[in-house]
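Example S7 (structure tokens).
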């Protein structure tokens, strides 16, 4: 049987055990404080970067990259031809390899024969018709040379008759040119009796002119000798000479 003193006795802690427990509490408290301070001083985490949508990136790139501008095709230089002496619309069309009808339509020509030397014609381009492979060079125009006039070009002036013989108001010598243009300045008419008429600067085309023996004012169809009395009579021989003295025609008044 145990004694009461033995059952109810309590063993008291010593001072060594108390200081050990107190030191452990201090270490735990210090570690906890240090952990709290460390977590408190750490900066908050940065939010994740937000990526731009693909459409926004494409628009931004489009605003930076310059847009290529449309390049216009150069306007072709018009092809032209200068009409030369002796040209006809048909010969031009053949030399250029185009249709004469196309040339007329393009240049708004109403008459194929009405071309002037130096006139500029538009030549069809590949869009408006067949075109020549190259623009023809204008032909060199030869310098004119002096050639003898043919019979059809040479003047042929003849005395064809007289009017009003012996009457001053109606007395006249009729001339007719059946050849080319006659420039009669310096030509003469004489009656073989010292009466000489010298033509002024007068041009007689294919046609007639009358030389009146009286006074008057010259026109294109009437010239005036300047006599104050009649000079023509039966048997008078009238001679027409050119400016070099060559006889062109004679007429004997019957």
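Recovered sequence:
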């Amino acid at each position: 049987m145990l004694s009461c003193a033995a059952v109810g006795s309590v063993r008291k802690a010593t001072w060594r055990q108390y200081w050990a427990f107190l030191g452990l509490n201090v270490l735990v408290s210090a570690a906890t404080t240090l952990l709290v301070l460390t977590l408190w001083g750490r900066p908050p985490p940065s939010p994740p970067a937000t990526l731009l949508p693909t459409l926004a990136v494409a628009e931004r790139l489009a605003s930076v990259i310059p847009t290529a501008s449309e390049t216009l095709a150069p306007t072709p230089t018009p092809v032209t031809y200068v009409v030369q002496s002796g040209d006809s619309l048909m010969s031009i069309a053949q030399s250029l390899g185009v249709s004469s009808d196309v040339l007329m339509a393009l240049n708004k020509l109403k008459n194929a024969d009405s071309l002037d030397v130096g006139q500029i014609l538009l030549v069809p381009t590949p869009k408006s018709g067949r075109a020549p492979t190259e623009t023809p060079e204008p032909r060199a125009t030869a310098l004119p040379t002096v050639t003898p006039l043919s019979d059809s070009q040479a003047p042929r002036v003849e005395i064809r008759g007289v009017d009003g013989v012996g009457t001053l108001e109606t007395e006249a010598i009729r001339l007719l040119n059946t050849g080319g243009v006659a420039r009669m300045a310096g030509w003469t008419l004489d009656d073989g009796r010292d009466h000489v008429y010298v033509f002024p600067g007068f041009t007689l085309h294919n046609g007639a002119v009358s030389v009146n023996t009286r006074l008057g004012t010259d026109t294109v169809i009437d010239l005036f000798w300047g006599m104050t009395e009649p000079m023509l009579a039966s048997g008078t021989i009238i001679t027409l000479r050119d400016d070099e003295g060559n006889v062109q025609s004679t007429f004997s008044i019957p």
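Notes on this example. The chain is about 20% helix and 20% strand.
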